[in-house]
Amino acid sequence: MEPPTTLPRRATTLSRLWRTTDVADCIGSYLPTKSLAVLPTVARQFERDKWRSLIAALRQQPRRAVAECTGALLSALQMGGRDSYHFREDWADQARFDEKWTALLFRRARAGEGETEHVDYTATVSQGTLVFDRITPRNSTTLGSQFDIPGASDRCCIHRFRVALTYTPNNEETNTWGSGFQFVNANYGATRSLFGLFIHHSREGHIRLQWRRSADTSVQTLKTAPTQHTFLVDATLDWRTATARVTVDGAEIDRLVPFPRVPVTTLLLRCNDKPGQSTFGPVDVWYSNAPPPLPYVRFDPLF
User: Fold this and answer.
1) What does the alpha-carbon distance between residue 209 and residue 195 come to, in Å, rounded to a whole number?
2) Are residues 92 and 211 in the same domain?
3) How far apart are CA 161 and CA 284, in angstroms?
């Protein structure tokens, strides 16, 4: 009779223990939150089962934290999933611009009631740019053009936009602004907008790209150029924090800029109430329509 063969014991590794025993609750209870995010880099098993540790960590959180995480997850799915939309205006055709975009005339609020004054201007599409050239001297009317965002509902969230802006005043001895870029709710007008992005030209010759919140009068200068300059703007909007991360000419601004969490329906381009050229390069916009808030989750990305 042969003696029984003693099989060598296999060492119990953490990844094997993870497969055979539900230790996610224990790991999630003592690991710092930031460590949970890098746990999948330890082994492929953790990568395959990363949701197990995340769900275990969520079970230990207050109900509000679970609700916020659910909202953030749904927002991420919207931005990268089938519910997200993207449109691009490359200013390739004058006839298409004339058909899609609507010319607007705004009367300045401080000018009082009454009809808008006449404005002579040209709107020319050429080589991938739109140029508004206002010819009429300064009066109480501001020039603009708007385009309804395709498929936007009354809960439209702009996640990212990219645009090129240039402004050339006819009289460089005065303070003036142009090349205004806004997302607005057409049901309320320009008073309900995410922000006002525009170029300000001072009589000293400084050219500033500025961001203005629609809810107040605070203005933030994103970049200053010594001479005429085309600003390339790429901004990502976080609806959970109501702040945007903005890149200008390839360099990220070292601070977040705020915006009010209001739904929008329309893209609005604005010129000045003084003579000058406002030039817009190709425009890219990424957006989605937020679902109504769940009855058991107190989370609303809009209000």
Assistant:
1) 13
2) yes
3) 5
Question: How far is Cα 256 from Cα 241, in angstroms, rounded to an integer?
Answer: 10
Q: Which of 178, 155, 176 is nearest to 166 (CA)?
A: 178
Which amino acid makes up residue 55? I
CA distance 150 to 131: 23
Q: Which two tokens stand for residue 170?
A: 């006819």
Range of the domain at 190: 86-289
CATH number of the domain to which 93 belongs:
2.60.120.200
Of 271, 100, 60, the closest CA to residue 182 belongs to: 271
| Judgement on whether residues 50 and 157 belong to the same structural domain of the protein | no
Instruction: Assess contact for 167 and 276: CB atoms under 8 A.
Output: yes
Amino acid identity, position 62: P
How many Cβ atoms sit within 10 Å of the Cβ of residue 228? 14
In degrees rounded to 5, what are phi and psi of residue 61? -100, 155
What are the tokens at 10?
């296999």
96 and 130 part of one domain: yes
Total H helices, total E strands in the chain = 7, 18
Distance, CA of 177 to CA of 212 (rounded, Å) = 13
- Tokens standing for 124? 């020319």
* Boundary-marking domain end, from 80, 102, 127: 80
- Joined together, the tokens standing for residue 200 give 């300000």
| The residue type at 209 | L
pLDDT means over runs of 10, the chain (303 residues): 60 59 62 66 63 68 68 62 81 91 72 67 91 87 88 87 94 82 80 87 88 76 92 93 94 92 90 89 92 47 48
Domain count, the chain: 2
Question: What's the gap between Cα 57 and its chain centre?
Answer: 30
In the structure encoding, which two tokens stand for residue 201, read together? 């030209």
Supply angle C-alpha 185, 186, 192, rounded to 5: 40
